[in-house]
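Hey team,

Filing this mostly as a record. A colleague (T.K.) asked me to run one chain through the structure pipeline before their review meeting, and I want the input and output archived in the tracker in case anyone asks later how it was produced. No errors, nothing strange. Just documentation.

Input sequence:
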Amino acid sequence: YTRDVAVQALGEWWSDREDAYTTVLDIARNPNTNDDTRTAAVRMLAERWPDREDSYTTVLDTARNATYASLGAPVHVLGEQWPDREDSYTTVLDIARNPNAASRGFAMHVLGDRWPDRE
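Output structure:
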């Protein structure tokens, strides 16, 4: 819990500092980070640094490779923050189509919520 709060503090209080950004980015990219802390990092990247390409690609990669526990956040963030990017849509669609993905429910919800008019 303390790490999650620290990640949020970096994004909320020091988003203008490059070292805060790189720290949050590193946390989001690290597959060994616990799920709650990684989720906090993904959310901060989207909330505080959405215009940075590394933020987007990190969230995209996290959605593609996340465990069940941490998948809801990156899938939701893709639909919420970057719905106009085609990779966001195709990644969420691929997850929803995968019958073995424990995350299908998250992806189906985001598809219906963000892209209801797409085939």
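Quick notes for T.K.: The longest helix spans residues 35-48. Residues 2-114 form one domain.
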